[in-house]
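WARN no homologs supplied; continuing
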Amino acid sequence: MSEIRIKAPERLHQAEGLALLRDAAGRKLKADDQIVIDFKDTVAIDSTGGASLVRLSEWARSKGARLQLDGAGGQAAEFIDIIRPTLETERPSLPRTEGAVEKLGGSGIAAFGEIGEFFSLVNDSVYWTLIAPLTGRGIRWNNFLDELYEMGYRAVGIVCLMNFLLGLIIAMLLAKQAEAYGIQLFVADIMMIGFARELAAIMTAIVVSARTGAAIAAEISTMKVQEEVDALRGMGLNVVEFLVAPKLLAMLIVLPCLVMLGMYAGIGGGAIWGVYVLGFQYDIWLNQTLKAAYFSDLLQGISKTFVFAVFIVLIGCHNGFRVKGGSRGVGLMTTRSVVMDIFMLITVDILFAVLFYYVFE
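OK structure emitted
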């Protein structure tokens, strides 16, 4: 058995695919030989190039030889993964029962693999969102404006309502405790500090993750199941540029704005209780609230929203791209996305609280 190595062109389109077929057909091939196509320098493959690979695989199989695709990366690797089932020349082996150690090791490998995929998505998203526009590759503005409307404008009502009700409830509970000490007016200070630092940011982020994060995961999962993502890759489009970058840029803009609106709504809910239930005059409650307003508190609340925005979008996209199966897979990945979102939001919030407590104060 001998190995025949053929170097693939930089771009494998129709003409290059035919040339690759002619090159392979001109080699002296024996049974059990192995043809290795080196895709190390290949950066793009289209559907006609993929068809040439399928024809090459069929030809090698008819000669009793084996075809191996080696060194592919980037878009070329993604395209080859799509057509790989048609390129297999060997019958798949039967599954065998795994032991406990193998299952544990497999789970660890799968976890590290998923982490690697997530960081790869982060890397591509940073490039297409922040770097590519500076090099002349613009954002898809129509998609971006649609995402602004969907993520921002349509979320204003639910964000303000949830923060208003939260502010009303917290003011009610605090006032009852403060009544025993005659310091009910200081409820206004606590409402201002609490919503500026923590409550507005975390409540708004949770609402957005349950609303928008789940929608992102469901949208991309459905596209993946219906093979629309594969179709985009087959047309030579970068799915991160097309699907992820507009969502990420829109979320980075709308989430801080929604947090500000949520903060006003939450403080307003506390003011409603203070004025109409506790009986304080409006100007007294307002002055007490403004006395407790510090830029450092507002900075702590707003700064974390940019990190929240990145995690909400990328976790939704990450789970969407990993979907398997049909409609049940879409539902499972949507649920998984929301759970991961909330976990990461709480984790990031703890890190910011520790950072501002021990470093900046």
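The chain has a mean pLDDT of 86.
OK
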